[in-house]
Give the backbone structure.
Amino acid sequence: MLILVPTPIGNLEDISKRALDALMEAELIFCEDTRVTKKLLNLLSEKFNLNFENKQFQSYHSHNESKVLQTLDKETFTKNVVYVSDAGMPCVSDPGATLVDFCIKNEIKYDVIPGANAILTAYAMSGFTHTTFSFHGFLAHKGSDRASKLKTIMQSDKLGILYESPHRLLKLLEEIKNIDENRTIFLVKEISKLHQKSFKDSAKNIFEIFKDINIKGEWVVIIEPTIFEGQALNIDDIKDLDLAPKVKAKLLSKLTGKKTKDIYQELMQ
């Protein structure tokens, strides 16, 4: 079978007994980066007096997953197979989902062990009482895709959670401030590590703080949602409006992501 094993996001003691047992029993370990996984196993071996010898390692990441999948069959999973990403929960802004999908389609038994996750940890640390959120991973580095995605997050009625690198965090804070300087945001870096640190304030105040500090570490950013007095329009609402087909097609295109031309043709049929 296949077992997806979460790894610590900072503190080695966050590894669970189930995760250690799975790694001990593994014969083949798919890794986001074999070097990172081997280093982790060496650290776990020293800390918990374990032996992780005689393991087969194979890289499996976003750049080679399609190629690796073509080499797999049911026979591969007659042994104990494990997948680990570099840190945290596989499939959450990390590779692994295509392996799970392969198992589902080929009726191969699999399991996912619960474990460390930066998103949920940050959410619990934030003090926001909203019960719904959306996770967006890393935004595009630049361009219209980044601006459009951030605008969608800022206009959402759900908490927006995303990751950002130290090199682009100040840029993100400035972008948020320029949209709504009074919006409350929560930031945390190096979760469960020695230099864990968090901030919660208005976008304007946070930006002023970060202008004058040396930004290091990976960050989780949580953005307060927009509070709507009314109800959001859905696809059926738009279809029912008495509008010209071209106007209606443009609105539906915005909501669905489909091409305006294709929607227009559907409306005219």
In short: The longest strand covers residues 133-138.
